Amino acid sequence: MTPRRPPRVALALLARCVADSEPLAGDLLEEFEHGRSRSWLWLQVLAAIVARPAPERGEIRPLRLVDLQPADAAERTRRFSVRFPAVEMTAVGGVGALGLAGFVALMTGVVPAAWWLLAAAALAGCALGVVLIVVRRRALG
Amino acid sequence: MPRDLLTDFELMILLAILRTGDDAYGVQIAREIEATGGRRVLLGAVYAALERLERNGLVTSAVGAPTGERGGRAKRFFRVTARGVRAARHTQQALVALWRGLPQLKERRS
Question: Residue B96 phi/psi, 5° resolution?
């Protein structure tokens, strides 16, 4: 009987995406040796990547109620705005909508088929978002 | 009011480590939670929580020797610190205090 080989791509992905993943990889291999499937291992790897701790998110949330406190919410919003400052979306201040309308008219006139590409990309983005949310919820229990 | 109260998952992990003893590592902790706590867990989520607990000084870890079964990868053994035990106790007390006196949660004896 040929010994089963663990999915190397999954383990390489784990090593690439999760810091200090050696003990986790060892645990996954141990479980795989005890009969877990390749799809189980892939699921664990994807969940580990999604659930990996964000840097500087050190505090323990008391009974998960902290997020509901207005003071905490305000502090988190402030921290978020410092980390991700607002991006100016308009090429020239005050004419964003006009520029967008011009772009839409140009695209409709020159390459109307590109709308299908945009719609497909939007749908794919939504689907990916749903998958990530589901995987993250499962990973966080 | 102590700030070191734990989430339900963190509390389960601390209790699983305490139940497992000195040789608690990822797989064993997950198995203990599944067997005793009746909750299915992902190993990645267990390690993410363990890392958070270690950063907060509630557990410590030590790397063991690599084994062939694990593709030459070492185990990481976890142990609950005195602060971790205190945090578990504080959380238990907070939950019990919230629980107390609620008629909806009284056990029915039939």
Answer: -65, -40
Percentages (nearest 5) of helix, strand, coil residues in chain B: 55, 15, 25
**What are B27-40's pLDDT values in tens digits?**
999 999 999 989 89
Compute the average pLDDT of residues A59-66.
50
Residues of B in contact with A139 (CB under 8 A): 42, 44-45, 48
Nearest to A27 among B5, B26, B41 (CB): B26
Q: Which chain B residue has its CA at the smallest distance from A51's CA?
A: B45
Answer whether 0.90 is exceeded by the pTM: no
- Cα distances (angstroms) measured from residue B61 to each of B14, B58, B89: 13, 10, 21
Residues of B with CB below 8 A from A141's CB?
9, 39, 41-42, 45
Asked if B7 contacts A64 with a C-beta cutoff of 8 angstroms, the reply is yes
Distance from CA of B110 to the nearest CA of A (A): 33
By CB neighbour count within 10 A (0-12 exposed, 13-18 middle, 19+ buried), where does B37 fall?
A: middle
CB atoms within 10 A of CB A137: 10
Taking alpha carbons only, the member of A39, A47, A41, A13 closest to residue A139 is A47
Strand partners, B66: B74
Q: What digits encode the pLDDT tens for the residues B26-79?
A: 999 999 999 998 989 999 999 999 999 999 999 999 988 888 778 888 899 999
ipTM tops the 0.90 cut: no
Compute the distance between CA of residue A28 and CA of residue A46 in angstroms, rounded to an integer: 12
